[in-house]
Predict the 3D structure of the following.
Amino acid sequence: MINHDAQMMALAIQTLFEPGDTFEVRALEVQGYMNSTKTWSGYFLYDGSNAEFIVNEVLKLSPAKGVYFTINPVYQSLLARSNSHMSISKTGSTTGDKDILRRRYMAIDIDPVRKSDTSATDDQVHLAYATAKLIFAYLIAQGWPRPIACFSGNGCHLLCPVDLPCDDNGLIKKCLEALALMFDTPEVKVDTSVFNPARIVRFYGTVACKGDPVPELGIHHRVSQILSI
């Protein structure tokens, strides 16, 4: 079994959040009693020095299908839902678009086309990398700030720094649709559905565990990571 990378998880917090930010960590299909699965959630205030504490709280969880976090800061009052620890999520108690203070990142999710609930093959990962490099170079050529490049465990994320209100009049949605029009192939797609401000992304450093690994087909569970900052 592949383990989470605690050092990478701490780096993700330190990279994406500023001191004073509050964010949600959400774990999907956490294994529980009698093989039941639940969604767990926790809200954490990053003070600039407690990344290791936050990581340790998340590592207390049983194995999960995937661990994610909000990339845009949320209102601090949401700490009252589950303050600095993970707990079983109640219906409607995860972050919604109205809970986001402001958009800080535009997430570009470049994912290989594959069957649902399966991890990518090694070849599919390489194709996603190739498309991500093309998009990265295009954005730089257009004068965009350098994105944070990440590996999701199955594909690539480019986190573009922005400073926008939650209601951006559809601007990010239009950007993602334009990139999809330019760079989609039959094998790799830009996910145009990740435009909402409360979007969660992989908690980098955690393992992506969609389906079962099939090593003989090149299908593996992989540790997500930040590639460049």
Remarks:
- The CA atoms of residues 23 and 73 lie 5 Å apart.
- The radius of gyration is 17 Å.
- Helices lie at 6-16, 51-59, 122-141, 171-183.
